[in-house]
Amino acid sequence: MFGGLWILILRTCINQLPFYSAHRKRFPSLKKDGKIGDLFAALGGLTMSTVVGWDKVKGPVETAYTLPPSCYFSPDVYASERKRIFSGGWVSFGRAEDLGNAGEYFASMVADTPLVAVRGDDGEIRVFANTCRHRGMQLLSEGRGCVRQIACPFHGWGYALDGALTAAPRMKSSIDFDKSDFGLIQISSAVREGFIFVNLDGAAGSVDDWLSGFSDLHQPWNLEALRTASRREFTVQCNWKLFLEVFNEYYHLKKVHPGTFGSLYQDPDPPEPVTGCFVSQFGEHVKKGSVGVLAKDHNELPLLPGLTGRLSNGTRYSWIYPNLSFAASRDAVWMLEVTPIGPAETQVRMRLMFDADVMQSRGFAEKLSIYEERMQIGMAEDIVVLEAQQIGVSSQFAQQGRFCPELEPSVHAFQKWYAKRMSAVS
Hints:
Low-confidence stretches: 1-45
Order of helices and strands: HHHHHEEEEEEEEEEHHEHHEEEEEHHH
Distance between the termini: 40 Å
Structural class: alpha+beta
Number of helices: 12
Strand content: 15-25%
Strand order of the largest sheet: 1-10-9-4-3-2-5
Number of strands: 16
Helix content: 25-40%
Largest sheet: 7 strands, antiparallel
Radius of gyration: 25 Å
């Protein structure tokens, strides 16, 4: 009896606390007559079971709601993404063209894990944990480079390009030490259409199932043969999903880009019916010509080989989940690859890709600068909106919204896929 009385008194006091009152707005499950355990769940942060609203995302675009706002700022959601989205799936990790010769490498992070992709002496691209097997030193700094072997800057352990440990100074007195037991940890990887993909937990299934239908749909652009002419890296103060979502919807164009390219596109076709983990939507241009240059320039590059009919005057926007998106247009491909740094910060690697023969043509460098200017202007206009959206979606009053079915179906397709993976029973 007395135990129950004390619980009642404690619950009554808690209900009057400003902290608890404020959190009832963010955690609808915290009712005034709720259990005391609910408060401690709130204090402990969000879990995937306390993120409400998943089912509202999974319906058709005409009736679906957007993701719960906590998906864009919660450290707990971010931690769960590392496991369910970025460790448990196939993640884009650069382009094979960057590793053309033996020893060329690319180092970056996936799920807060340092990785390095390197071209071996046998021509194969392998991806390794960028961590020395001695005492965990990061072996290669982030970015691109070329090495004859991978040498640890801490104690001098050395590795061949296939990951085998070849040098371990002064380890002879270490009993039963066998260099063959201490090669670099190799990560599941694959190259498709020129893109490198990695799967950290090795349990995502076949990459061809993940990309089912992708190659056939994008065959006219011959993505594997394209080459990068320009690249830029930067960070944006917004969640990674916000960044890629704005690149895959037409709804914002007239409002955010009214003086640049907001009027260059017709309303797009519905997304393609695909079975793989990606979404793709094609739209024709309003006028015949490139959308890669501003209207005043009229200094565009020739049509990509293989494009005919409607494809010769339109752009296909594709998003391979979770972190790769690109716009395949009539004369160029704009590629965006993102790495989450935190719940509200994203690293972006942007590149412009063209036909290799066109890149060798006279006057290409001058024309390239016009394409770069267009992308920089458009990106700057988007970033202003994205960073303001991050502030708004992090508000305690933010709630799930609705989609424009004609102009945001690709965003819905991604969010539906994301909600299913994040809410699945582990």
